[in-house]
Design a protein that fits this description.
Elements: E1 6-17, E2 20-31, E3 35-39, H1 46-53, E4 61-66, E5 69-70, H2 76-82, E6 83-86, H3 98-102, H4 104-108, H5 113-126, H6 131-134, H7 144-156, E7 162-166, H8 174-191, E8 194-199, H9 202-208, E9 211-216, E10 219-224, H10 226-231, H11 236-259
Parallel strand pairs: 3-8, 3-9, 6-7, 7-8
Antiparallel strand pairs: 1-2, 1-4, 4-5, 9-10
Length: 260
């Protein structure tokens, strides 16, 4: 793949927190329009990798290129306005309403008020939060799942071409999670979004990803399509991550057969 086709390019990323090596030579490219997942056990380095892309984490070594440009050439706030992101902690501004939180990046980019209001209402409706009920609420008036949905809407608000997502559906009930996964999958294909997505849920990765990078101890131990991982896991670590969706699928099949 040529450099121009790589919207996100990670080269030899290294990061230490004190004596702990969080990233140990991580390299990955994400093509235009691709949805790439980072999966692995807690502490494997996947969130640190994600945050390096928009400089929420500063590296000790290696480099990150976005659209062919080293991210260190941009001021962090300018970089983040071009990249949609939603993280586990949500990070909504507590003193701003839901509408103000969702519309904050478009406002900073100089959008007209009417355009911002229309975009906010459209996105709230898409993430199943009725605009008339939720627009004026403050973050402390939201449940954890509602706050996550507002965070996802905010990530999409300025119509970015690149999304960084860290467990954006983690606090949702199963039905809402499934519907928003379907919404996300359809939307990212419709808009040609380039996505780097962190998840601990291998089933989610298998269903949504074009490629999956399995991480362990700060390294990528296997990179491949969902089918490649399922048919040829690189080692026992990858096989263990695939064991849960396999067992769940087998149980469902057994229940269906028992009820037939």
């Amino acid at each position: 793949m040529g450099t121009l086709g790589r919207v996100i390019l990670l080269q030899g990323l290294e990061k230490r927190y004190g004596a702990a090596l969080a990233l140990d030579g991580v390299s990955l490219d994400v093509a235009r329009g691709e949805c790439a997942f980072l999966v692995g056990a807690s502490g494997c380095g996947k969130t640190t990798t994600l945050k390096a892309v928009n400089r929420l984490v500063e590296l000790d070594a290696g480099r990150v290129l976005v659209a062919g440009r080293d991210v260190r050439e941009s001021a962090p706030h300018e970089l983040r306005r071009r990249i949609g992101y939603a993280f586990q902690q949500v990070g909504l501004f507590p003193h701003l309403s839901v509408a103000e939180n969702v519309g904050i990046t478009p406002a900073l980019l100089g959008w007209e008020r009417a355009r911002i209001a229309a975009r906010v209402d459209a996105l709230l409706a898409r993430v199943e939060l009725e605009p008339a009920r939720f627009r004026a609420r403050l973050p402390h008036e939201l449940s954890g799942g509602q706050a996550q949905r507002v965070g996802l809407a905010r990530a999409l608000a300025a119509e970015p071409e690149i999304l960084l997502l860290d467990e954006p559906f983690g606090a949702l009930d199963p039905g809402t999670r499934d519907r928003l996964q379907q919404f996300f999958s359809a939307l990212r294909r419709e808009l040609g979004l380039t996505v780097l997505f962190v998840s601990h849920d291998m089933t989610e990765a298998l269903l949504l990803a074009d490629r999956i990078a399995v991480m362990d101890a700060g390294r990528i131990v296997q990179l491949g399509t969902p089918r490649e991982l399922l048919t040829a896991p690189a080692d026992a670590r990858v096989a263990a991550l695939l064991d849960t969706p396999r067992r769940q699928s087998a149980r469902v099949e057994q229940l269906l057969e028992a009820g037939a």
